[in-house]
Amino acid sequence: MAASLALVGIGSLVTNEPSLGDGPLGILPDAAVVIEDGRISWVGPSGECGDADQRIDLEGRAMLPGFVDSHAHPVFAGDRAAEFAARMGGQPYAAGGIRTTVAATRAASDDDLRAGLRRLAAEFRASGITTFEAKSGYGLTTADESRALRIAAESTAETTYLGAHVVPQEFAGRPDDYVDLVIGDMLDACAPHARWIDVFCDRGAFDADQARAILTAGIARGLLPRIHANQLQHGDGIRLAVEVGAASADHCTHASDDDLALLAGSDTVATLLPGAEFSTRSPYPDGRRMVDAGVTVAVATDCNPGSSFTTSMPFCIAVAVRDMHLTPDEAVWSATAGGARALRRDDVGHVRVGARADLVSLNAPSHVHLAYRPGVDLVDRVWASPPTPKVGS
Ligand code: NIG
Ligand code: FE
Prior knowledge:
This protein is of the alpha/beta class and 393 residues long. 34% of the residues lie in helices and 21% in strands. The protein has helices at residues 81-88, 98-107, 110-126, 142-153, 175-182, 185-190, 208-220, 237-243, 257-264, 274-280, 287-292, 313-324, 328-342, 369-372; strands spanning 4-14, 27-36, 39-45, 54-57, 62-65, 67-69, 129-135, 158-164, 196-201, 224-225, 227-229, 248-251, 269-272, 297-299, 359-362, 379-383. Strands 6, 7, 8, 9, 10, 11, 12, 13 and 14 form a 9-stranded parallel beta sheet that branches. Strands 1, 2, 3, 4, 5, 15 and 16 form a 7-stranded mixed beta sheet that branches. β2 and β3 (39-45) form a beta hairpin. α3 crosses α4 (142-153) and α12 (313-324) crosses α13. The longest helix has 17 residues, at 110-126. 54% of the residues are buried. The structure holds N-(iminomethyl)-L-glutamic acid and fe (iii) ion. The site of fe (iii) ion (FE) has 5 residues, from loops.
């Protein structure tokens, strides 16, 4: 029998199971969790926790499910700090900056890409993220996209083929030829290493007809669709996401009432990426309006070298609260259970019997402190399967 671990003395436990505690977050005060074989085997009041092989007293700290980062681009080489600095000096953000990272990524060795991904994965973990998605999209050749996905799959099960990030330089003026490659040889090479297919459907990237062709081809190969939609301008991306049954429409910075009604009536999650508006100094999407319209909202990092070079989910939660007008409870739900919905996972994002034992404890009495104390590293310890101490501790 596997050794059991009891985490007792949890001051405030976010379960995301309304049946287990108060409100939509199912908050249990003075709680305990028992872990066996990487899964949660018991949740309840600390005083009722039975014997276990090992016992750790959280001494009143808050605990919540590990964050689920459903949107990240962590496989790349190079740096775009100069582009960021120019933007902060007044330059606008444009999709074309992606080509700078494409050049650096193509020139990098497998080991360099692997080392970069591992560094970012360690940062994710230190910020409390226990599940992350990883997109390709900085290779844009058959060989470079498939190697990005092979390397990503070493670190996560949530791999996403994003050959349609932008049209690469060598296809300038021939976007339809590039789409043919994306849905042809490149898809053949990438599909075995990917769970998802994504398209950047926006100004300077791909239009809705191209995006539809790409997502439809991916679906036919057994990949599940998700989409970058309506980041830079209003377009048909959200409508397309619902039409193809995408798990998530990401960014949604420019969304009409009709778009929100479509999302609310569908299984498509709206994934908000606060780091992107923060780092491109763009207007934030109105998360409040989305939640009030009945849309399921996720919050994710969008970690990438161009528009959002952060691995910190607590930072994203704080900005989602401050500038997207989610309540602290909503933002924490969106970064855990919402992210799990956006990845169509029910084994993460919750604290309940049978779920993965992915948990974060905070040096704070409640999850509200994640937004209340912006910029402060409150993560005490991260439990995942296998157990991982916080990086640096
Ligand atoms: O999600 N919008 C498209 N892709 C990334 C940006 C990529 C880049 O600028 O390198 C995003 O923001
Ligand atoms: Fe993105």
